[in-house]
Amino acid sequence: MKLSISWKFAILVAVILILDQLLKIWVKTNMYIGQDINVLGNWFLLHFVENPGMLFELEFGGKIGKYFLGVFRLLLVVLVIYGVRLSIREKIPNGFVICLGLVLAGSISNIIDQAFYGLIFDTGTTFNAELGTWVSYSGVSQFSNEGYASFLQGSVVDMLVFPIIRGTYPDWFPFMAGNSFIFFRYIFNIADVAVIIGTFSIVLFYMKYLKQIISVSFKVLGIEAER
Q1: Of 154, 172, 201, 211, whose CB is crowded by the most CB atoms within 10 A?
Q2: Residue at 206 is within a domain
Q3: Could you list the active site residues?
């Protein structure tokens, strides 16, 4: 039986959500902050960190910033779902719909962390108003009815790191001479990978279809898009 694009989309989103959440929950309940587990030598590690903000450990605005980030993520999910519906209706190529599915799945999964992890785990990274910064914790987290933070104040669990190249900046390198470096040093999760792949694939291969969807959206709203 040949699956429709709607079914393929739904299966993709479900698989990414399940894999990402299973790995995050395992890491959260079995590892402590900063712990490393070698998966493939020194080339692929699980390194547990909690990210109070966005991709690549960016954060802003403390607790208020977290609420704005949560609202932004929810709006992004709504827009992507709307884009998927329009894409299927307008018979946009399936590849574009699949890319939107990657972005949607990754966004939803990170929203789950932010929205609910503070409610279901006993410990997590929290914002200290007196210090004006985010404060980590010790030990391994467990499920709890009390939680460690309110709705939308949970931190996203990151753990994937690929330190492919390690070395030292040469003497001639400005400002960084003699300092060690790691490529790739950023720590992320499966949801982040899905969002990055989906977004870059759209930019590289499907921009004209994105513009088409935006144009159709304007027309639905009664606005004539500029060409």
Answers
A1: 154
A2: yes
A3: 158, 192
Q: What pLDDT band is residue 208 in, cutting at 50, 70 and 90? A: very high
Across 5-9, 66-70, 108-112, 195-199, least confident range: 66-70
- Domain that residue 75 falls in: 5-219
166 in any annotated domain: yes
pLDDT grade for 181, boundaries at 50, 70 and 90: low
- DSSP codes, 46-108: EEEEEESSSGGG---SHHHHHHHHHHHHHHHHHHHHHHHHHHHHTT--HHHHHHHHHHHHHHH
Radius of gyration of the chain (CA): 20
- Residues facing 134 on adjacent strands: 127
Nearest residue to 46 via CA among 68, 71, 69, 27: 27
Taking residues 42-66, report their average pLDDT: 77
Q: Is 85 a member of any domain?
A: yes
Average pLDDT rounded to a whole number, residues 62-86 = 89
pLDDT for position 219: 77
Residue 197, in any domain of the structure: yes
Q: Residue 159 class from Cβ within 10 Å (0-12 exposed, 13-18 middle, 19+ buried)?
A: buried
CA 115, distance to chain mean position in Å, is 13
Number of domains in the chain: 1
Q: What amino acid occupies position 113?
A: D
Average pLDDT of span 188-195: 95
Distance, first Cα to last Cα, the chain: 41
